[in-house]
Design a protein that fits this description.
This protein has a domain of about 90 residues: Immunoglobulin-like. The chain contains 3 helices and 12 strands.
Length: about 220
C-alpha cells in the first residue's frame, strides 16, 4: 500500500473516531460534579459584580453532601453483605433439626409425620389425608380438642392399615363447635426435619425437607 493511501486511511479513521458522540446522561457522580465545579472556577471573573459568593458556597456544600451520601451507601452495602453471611450461617445450623413451619400437610419420613393445629376455642376436629393425586388415603378423627395448640401425629398408614410411602400428603381440616355445625377458626403448622438449606443469588434463604421447600420466613420455631 502506498504512503498516500495509508495517510488517507488514517485520516478517515481519525475523522470517524472524532465523530463518535457519547449519548447524554441523566446522572452524575462526585467526580463529574467536581469537574464541573473546577471548570466553573476557572471561568469566573472575581472582579465582576455578577458573581454570587453564596452560590459557590451552596455548590461546595452540595458536593460535600454528595460525597457523604455515596460513602454512606458503600457502608450500607458492606453491612448488608455481612448480615447476609450471618443469616446464611444461622440457617445452616438448622440442618438435621426439626422445625415448625407455617402451613398444612404431612411430610411423611420413615413412617412418621406431625402437624400442629391452633384452635381459637374447643372444637371437634377431623384430619383428612390425601395423596399427590388428591385421593383420600386416611381419615384421622381427633375428637374434642381444647383451645390452643394440639399436635397430631400420623404413622403413615392408610384407612386399611397399609403403610404408605414417604412423601408429602395434603391435609384438610374440619373443626366444629359443640353444636357440630359452627366452624371454629384455626391455624395449622408442620413439623419437618431440615435436610438442607438453599441460598439464592437474590439473598433469599429456603429450608428443604424431603421434596418440600419452605422459605425461611415460614419457619416459626426450631427444636433439637
Amino acid at each position: 500500500m502506498e504512503t498516500g493511501m495509508i495517510g488517507a486511511t488514517n485520516s478517515a479513521t481519525s475523522a470517524a473516531t472524532s465523530g463518535t458522540k457519547t449519548g447524554p446522561s441523566n446522572t452524575i457522580d462526585k467526580d463529574g460534579f467536581l469537574q464541573l465545579l473546577v471548570a466553573q472556577l476557572k471561568n469566573q471573573d472575581p472582579t465582576s459584580s455578577s458573581q454570587d459568593p453564596n452560590a459557590m458556597v451552596q455548590q461546595l456544600t452540595s458536593f460535600s453532601s454528595l460525597e457523604q451520601a455515596q460513602q454512606t451507601n458503600t457502608l450500607l452495602q458492606g453491612l448488608q453483605s455481612q448480615n447476609t453471611g450471618i443469616f446464611q450461617a444461622q440457617a445452616a445450623s438448622m440442618i438435621g433439626k426439626k422445625v415448625e413451619v407455617d402451613g398444612s400437610g404431612f411430610n411423611l419420613q420413615s413412617g412418621q409425620a406431625s402437624m400442629n393445629i391452633y384452635l381459637n376455642s374447643a372444637a371437634n376436629v377431623t384430619f383428612t389425608v390425601k395423596d399427590a393425586k388428591g385421593n383420600i388415603v386416611a381419615t384421622l378423627p381427633q375428637g374434642n380438642l381444647n383451645s390452643g395448640k394440639a399436635t397430631v401425629n400420623w404413622d403413615g398408614k392408610d384407612s386399611s392399615g397399609n403403610q404408605l410411602p414417604d412423601g408429602a400428603y395434603a391435609v384438610s381440616v374440619t373443626a366444629t363447635g359443640p353444636d357440630g355445625k359452627t366452624a371454629v377458626p384455626f391455624q395449622t403448622s408442620l413439623i419437618v426435619k431440615v435436610d438442607s438449606v438453599a441460598f439464592s443469588s437474590s439473598g433469599a434463604i429456603s429450608v428443604l425437607s424431603g421434596t418440600n421447600t419452605f422459605p425461611l420466613s415460614k419457619v416459626l420455631g426450631v427444636s433439637a
